[in-house]
Amino acid sequence: MKKQCVGDPDQLNWVKFWQEKLENKTDKKKDWDKAAPGFYKRATKDEYKELLLDELILDEEDTVLDLGCGEGSITLPIAEKVKSITGLDSSIKMLEYLREKAEKEGMTNVHTIFQPIEDINHEELGNYDVVISSRSLNGVVPIKETLEEMNKIANKYVFITIFGPENWQIETEFNEFIGKEQETFPGYNYIFNILYNMGIYPNTKRLDIKEYRKYDSIEEAMDNGKFRLDLLNDEEKEKLKEYLNRILKKDPETGKLYNKKDKADWVLIWWKKEE
Fold it and tell me: What share of the chain is helix, strand, coil (3-state, %, to 5)?
């Protein structure tokens, strides 16, 4: 009989680690209905969408389920490539923006479901050829159950993107500046190991995002969604303004403010469904 080592990673409870990590975060929950207008207005301007679409394996006859679809920044480009796509989200406001954009583009193959990702159920939703969760699983507490349902729903492939290790550089520095400990989300390695222990052996790829964020003003940089202004007191907001004034530089050609550390970092995790 093979003797198990005390530190055997196959025996580690990665689900528990994930849940404990989230329990320590005070800002994991966000009112997405309230955030929707600003999110819609600030639509991401880096290469994320193009990089992800290049990696997805899609067929024109595919049906797709997009979990945590938001306002449709990924949903609508995919709709142009497949038979139909259903966007699922817990924010009514986000789904309203998605339907509005789909209608404006004359897309009739886009459908929506109002439901939290945590509540997805194969028996209720049925099967789709491809299941996608783009930047949406980071705060899901019942992660194993959610991944199991995603795997059941998918006929062909599952694609997930989750925070990479360098996603929070300037936020970490800011919290150090005001004397707060940075509360990070669990990393992509947690998801990888949870899947591995479920008997799913996924592929991983770090999306090579080079474009950093740019702002017209310090106020726009403060309100970019990365800093939870609703959780900062007035003194901390003033310190944030001071911090951003110190670290942001002005591009002499465009007049935009930027910092090269201020860019997204995402890891793609995907697998082919077992026959």
Answer: 40, 20, 45
Find the helix or strand (DSSP H, E) in which 144 lies.
helix 143-153
- What is the Cα–Cα distance from 125 to 120, expressed in whole angstroms? 7
Q: What is the Cα–Cα distance from 130 to 112, expressed in whole angstroms?
A: 16
Residues 123-142 pLDDT 10s: 999 999 999 999 999 999 99
206's torsion region: left (phi>0), alpha (psi -120 to 50) or beta? Answer: beta
pLDDT in tens, 78-96: 999 999 999 999 999 999 9
Sheet with 84-89: strands ordered across: 110-114, 84-89, 63-67, 128-134, 154-163, 266-272, 203-206
pTM of the model: 0.86
Give the integer Cα–Cα distance in Å for 172 and 23: 19
Question: Taking a C-beta distance cutoff of 8 angstroms, is the pair 84, 109 a contact?
Answer: yes
Per residue in 54-71, pLDDT (tens digit) is 999 999 999 999 999 999
And the tokens for 48?
Answer: 């994320």
Please state at what angle helix 234-247 crosses helix 169-177, rounded to 10 degrees: 120
Report the DSSP pairing between strands 84-89 and 110-114: parallel
CA 181 to each of CA 26, 38, 229, 240: distance values in angstroms, whole numbers, following the listed order: 11, 27, 16, 15
Element (H, E) at 114: strand 110-114
**pLDDT recorded at residue 1:** 41
Q: Pairing state of beta strands 214-215 and 249-250?
A: unpaired
